[in-house]
Amino acid sequence: MKIQLQLQKASHQGRRSQWLKNPINSGVYRNWLIDKGSLTLRLQLRAKDFKVKPLKVENAKPQIDEASLLGVAQHQLALLREVQLIDGATPLVFAHSILPHRSLSGAWLGLRRLGNKPLGATLFSNPKVKRTPLMFKKLACHQPLYQRATAHLEIKPITLWARRSVFILGNAQILVTEVFLPGILAL
Ligand SMILES: C=C(O[C@@H]1C=C(C(=O)O)C=C[C@H]1O)C(=O)O
User: Fold this and answer.
1) Is 58 annotated as a binding residue?
2) Ligand 1 center–CA 142 separation, angstroms
3) Which residue from 7, 61, 115, 167 lies 20 to 30 Å from 107 (Cα-Cα)?
């Protein structure tokens, strides 16, 4: 019976966390959402005072759908890294990354202690790193990712666009989710 309930919950979670292959009707956010290059680099070229502002770096349990994307057990702790990419005092992007401990070795050992260095610098500097196709989601205010992304915003938009993909290096995988904030539209 317990397994049946877990399967139903996972399926329900799966339905609730519908991520799309295309950011339909994403309007002014579209070009930011679909660009496959390093978001950090793109922002560094446009922002006058680009910084990475760590908000939370701690061991935490991934969401059910995140754990299944990474092929880790849901109850297993992973390193959660949440940052804002900012221009001066303007938040541009909220990034939520799940780094399974087993992935933090070899070339990715340093990801444990990135601090305010951008994750993308490591990911995009290694030609052996692969990236799964981007998936997109329009977040509404009741969704956990919306609430995490807007927790530090004075003015909260009605909806937000997010994207996510898995970066792969050999057997290591990390899930990177980016929520695009209104401040990015000024760039
Ligand atoms: C994946 C990238 O790294 C960016 C920087 C992140 C960080 O420092 O935690 C997280 C996600 C990205 O917005 C990128 O630059 O494309």
Assistant:
1) no
2) 25
3) 61
- Measured from the CA of 81, which atom of ligand 1 is nearest? 9
The protein residue with its alpha carbon nearest to ligand 1, atom 2, reads 120
Q: Which fold has domain 18-186?
A: Chorismate lyase (3.40.1410)
> Is 119 a known ligand-binding residue?
yes
pTM of the model: 0.90
Would you say the CB of residue 164 lies under 6 angstroms from ligand 1? Answer: no
Q: Is 112 in a helix, a strand, or coil?
A: helix
**Size of the chain in residues:** 187
Show me where the domains of the chain are located: 18-186
Query: For the chain, which residues score pLDDT lower than 70?
Result: 1-17
Other beta carbons within 10 Å of 107 = 14
Question: ipTM value of the model?
Answer: 0.96
The answer to whether 81 is a known ligand-binding residue is yes
- In this predicted model, what pLDDT tens digit does every residue of 73-106 receive, in sequence order? 989 999 999 999 999 999 999 999 999 999 999 9
